[in-house]
Amino acid sequence: MTTEELDPFKISQEQLDTAAGIMKLDPAAHALLREPMQTLTVNIPVKMRDGKTRTFQGFRVHYNTARGPAKGGIRYHPQENISTVKALAAWMTWKCSLADIPLGGGKGGVICDPKSMNDEELENLSRAYVRSIGRFIGPKVDVPAPDVYTTPQIMAWMMDEYSKLEGHDEFGVITGKPVEVWGSQGRFDSTALGAMFVLREAAKLHKINMKNAKVAIQGFGNAGGFAFELVKKLGAKVVAISDSSGGVYSKAGLDYQKLSEQKKKTGELSGIKGVEKLTNEELLELDVDVLIPAALENQITGANADRLKARMVLELANGPVTPEADRILFEKKVPDYPDFLVNSGGVIVSYFEWAQNTQNWYWTEDEVNKKLEGIMVRSFNSVIDTQAKFAKQGARISPRMGAYIVAVDRVAKAMKARGWY
Ligand code: NAD
User: How far is the CA of 385 from the centre of ligand 1 (A)?
Assistant: First the structure.
């Protein structure tokens, strides 16, 4: 049993504190950045299918808006809580800043079990949530998006409700919409695609030959599922993947199509001939070139980091590596590329969607992907350059600290220029 801190907001504060120490951040800026600027809690009455009204609790957090409107997804989850929302809002701030896009950080969530709700109830809840937070969001104030268990359809209902409140269409209030209501081309796999640009650059840097490289992925959802196919385009093979029902392994490499069919048929990934079963714990400890956690937070901890054999970790999920695990990987010299660099492709294409909505001028998927590649490579290089700058002064810092220093410095400079401290 590990006794380390697993509260997501405290983890995000600890990471910021470490970066602040290394970069000698002004104490006034540090104090401002340790807490969200605004936190809204709402109680939302919703008519359910049995005719009764149920009250749901929801949140929306503006972590920092010095560089632009708050940006961040909305989660529907039974275990949603304000600590997770605040942590994710902080990470959104660093994510938008590292990508150097003109947005701040925010996040939202509703405590609910979407799997037990029908479409009508979900629509009622989504519209009621938007009415509750209506004065807190807007294309120039705060632009939400989908996250765990919220979908493009839910974004369309929310945009429609907000437009009704305003009395005119306001497509730019929310991103991740279906393309029929001016979502962006290329949004569906942008998170995984962005991560592949980071993987390509990182593999070159660490001299990992991606041809036939062995990759293990935890999670077979939006992020992990798309990453599976894209990893193969780099010439690598996915030897292991898992979902909440457990994992599977094949030395020769797994077949995406077969796994999808198996999951559809049985609800599980295992059961294919010639493919071994393995637990999630075993997957994390496999001897592979690249490990991609793409499911949940707090998966690589002080309890298992020492047993990791991967040559590189690419954090596609938010918060999969705890600070204690971070220290262990750093000591072992295993490069661990942080979440707010690796999974920033989603918010970057969200930014493109917002920009397209604002100017009413739409781009092709090819244009979107080329622009995404440019920003991902620029972000990666800014992290590497920062590590190199510190190395010249005799200090070795991790990719996470490199990313924090770039991101926090930009937000602090914006706050300074605005006269906030
Ligand atoms: P998702 O709900 O589509 O998929 C989650 C996957 O994790 C599912 O396959 C689920 O079975 C699996 N899972 C759940 N519990 C597990 C367990 N104990 N062990 C192994 N697998 C388990 O969610 P997603 O959109 O793919 O998001 C995954 C992570 O990526 C989250 O941390 C999310 O915040 C992050 N992320 C996603 C996006 C995006 O655009 N989808 C963007 C940025 C960050």
Answer: 30
**Which residue range is the domain that position 94 belongs to?**
36-171
pLDDT in tens, the chain (421 residues): 457 878 999 999 999 999 999 999 999 999 999 999 999 999 999 999 999 999 999 999 999 999 999 999 999 999 999 999 999 999 999 999 999 999 999 999 999 999 999 999 999 999 999 999 999 999 999 999 999 899 999 999 999 999 999 999 999 999 999 999 999 999 989 999 999 999 999 999 999 999 999 999 999 998 999 999 999 999 999 999 999 999 999 999 999 999 999 999 999 999 999 999 999 999 999 999 999 999 988 999 999 999 999 999 999 999 999 999 999 999 999 999 999 999 999 999 999 999 999 999 999 999 999 999 999 999 999 999 999 999 999 999 999 999 999 999 999 999 999 999 9
- The residue whose CA has the least distance to atom 25 of ligand 1 is 222
Whether residues 52 and 95 fall in one domain = yes
Mark whether 124 and 221 lie in a shared domain: no
Ligand 1 touching residue 150 (CB < 6 A): no
Give Dmax over CA atoms of the chain in angstroms: 67
Residue 227 CA, ligand 1 centroid: distance in Å: 12
Q: Which of 138, 171, 204 is the last residue of a domain?
A: 171
Annotated catalytic residues are: 107
In a domain, 204, yes or no: yes
Same domain assignment for residues 279 and 164: no
Residue nearest to atom 14 of ligand 1 (CA): 244
Q: What is the CATH number of the domain that holds 328?
A: 3.40.50.720
Q: With a 6 A CB cut-off, is 344 part of the ligand 1 pocket? A: no
pTM reported for the whole predicted model: 0.96
CA–centroid distance, residue 343 to ligand 1 (Å) = 11
Are 41 and 146 within one domain? yes
